[in-house]
Amino acid sequence: MTRSPYQGAFLALLPTGKAWNKQPSGTLGRLSWALSDSVEQADSAATQLLKERFPSTAVMLLEDWESFLGLPDCTSESGTMRERQSVAANKMRMVGSLNRRFYEWLVAQYGYRVRLTDSDEGQYTTVVNVLNSVSYRNATVLDNVLTPLRVYDSGALECLLEKYKPAHQIYKFIYADED
To answer: What are phi and psi for residue 6, nearest 5 degrees?
Structure first.
């Protein structure tokens, strides 16, 4: 039986006198040793709870943080604990904006290069020129009639912009040709 710091603290708090045997091997010493486990668990849980205040260090409340922040979204996948903490912390620190540079910066965080320009179709329509190459597949006879002739694999890009755009804004996506 090794003496724990909590057992020592418990024995030190006992009153002085002959009736109070403060030896670790005595009856009160064994009782304090048995009680020290639950006190140690409560102390470690309280220490962890202080870390749970922030998504970058949360473990027990990480799912609650993700739910609060709307994660996982269309761009994040379930990864390791560290990756999930990082995504939640980045989302918590993100400051949104309505200017074009914000949207260009936002998609650049996910590896896309775009340029936003005005459209001739109206003030609420913006053309998104995707500058880097995005993989695609050609439409086949098995596809629906409404399927575009080229189906681009940019679901994360389009989802990301659609999620953060103002409600009245319409995005038209134009992809750079690889030819």
So the answer is: -70, -35
Positions in the chain whose pLDDT score sits under 50: 179
Strands 136-138 and 150-152: antiparallel
3-state secondary structure labels for all residues of 1-66: CCCCHHHHHHHHCCCCCCCCCCCCCCHHHHHHHHHHHHHHHHHHHHHHHHHCCCCCCCCCCHHHHH
Q: What is the 3-state secondary structure (H, E, C) of 135-147?
A: CEEECCCCCCCCC
> Against a cut of 0.70, is the pTM above it?
no
What's the pLDDT at 49?
94
Cα separation, 142 vs 40, whole angstroms? 64
Asked which of 39, 72, 94 is the last residue of a domain, the reply is 94
Residue 90, domain extent: 52-94
